[in-house]
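Lab notebook page, bench 4
Experiment: in silico fold of construct C2
Operator: M.H.
Input chain length: 288 residues
Purpose: comparison with the prior construct
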Amino acid sequence: MAGYDDRDGKIWLDGQLVEWRDAQVHELSHALHYASSVFEGERCYGGKIFKSREHSERLLQSGRLIDFEIPYTVDEIEAAKEATLKANGLTDAYVRAFAWRGAGEDMGVASARNPVRMAVAVWSWGNYDGDAKMKGAKLDVSKWKRPSPETIPSHAKAAGLYMICTLSKHAAEAKGCSDAMMFDYRGYVAEATGANIFFVKDGEVHTPKPDCFLNGLTRQTVIGMLEDRQVKVHERHIMPEELESFQQCWLTGTAAEVTPVGQIGDYNFEVGSLTRDIAEGYEQLVRT
């Protein structure tokens, strides 16, 4: 497959559909140097983007959390996503909407005078963790920790917050793993590099409290599914030593969807009936 900069198709850029290869930004764009960028990852199933409006609302909120206002309304972002899907002839696709501070009068840490730009790109993308949906993903344990909310805007889906996720995933892949689990700054279990995490013990579900990382839309959806099934969900701080007591585990995220986990470091988990039920139920839900 060609690189992401060398493909046929259209990208929505600052209000216009442009040729894929022509959707470029200047080398002195502020975001390239100082990570002043936010984004959303979404999936379209059968021509309908799952929780599309919630994603658009979160994109605007993420911009505000890193101190810029995206110059489009939710309705305009929704229209941009639909136009991009149509222009590319896709009904099942990954959708990436993103905004950043571009090149302008400022080229230091401050960038208030630079324009805020936005784009939408769509493409076909299969399982994020390969065949993990069948046998369970293998996770490394990252040496990097999710930072304190006093040090970063932890509830923004901001590009700069993913640097340690990239480092963690590279290290995991070098060990033959598909992802890594991260602890938070206090030593509690937090999440994977781009997905939230759930555990099962004696028929009840335990998931980290999202007080220093993103409360994913897929995470919220899955909690709702569990509650509809009258499965008890404990949102709480989870200590590392508790991993040994959990029987099942899965990841949730727009890209990951619901991905079973078979191993985290030295701990093994079964791809059990509840994991399979939630994964299958989610597949049905997003296509209704």
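Observations: The chain has a mean pLDDT of 96. The longest strand covers residues 137-146.
Next step: discuss at group meeting.
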